[in-house]
Amino acid sequence: MPPAFEVGNFGEKPEMERVDIGNPDCKRALALLDAYLSNELTVETTALIGRHLEECLTCQKEFGIREGLKERLQLVLLRDAVSPALRKRIARLMRQQEGSGFHISF
Fold this sequence. Notes:
The protein is mainly α. The protein has a domain at about 25-95. The protein has helices spanning about 25-35, 45-55, 55-80, 85-95. The longest helix is centred in the middle third of the chain and has 23 residues, at about 55-80.
C-alpha cells in the first residue's frame, strides 16, 4: 500500500491546461481512489483525498470514471440474475485489481 497521506503533502494547485500525472500528490491520490470511493480510508486520509480532488482536474476526471464504473457494475448486478458464485468471483477480481492501475472502458 502506498504511504499514508500527511497534512501538508499537497503542492500548489496545478494549472488547468497542464496535466501532470507525474505529480507525487496525484500518484498517491490515484492509488487510493478506489478505497476512497468505497469509504475504506481513515477520516484524515479521506479529507486529504477530497481536498486534492477539489483542486486537481486530472484526478477529478479519473474519479468520475471509476465512480461511473462502480455504478454501472452495481446496476448490472441488481438488474441481472447472477449466481452467487459469479458474484464472489467478480468481487474477488475487483479486490485484486484495486490500486493496480487497471482500467475498464465501456
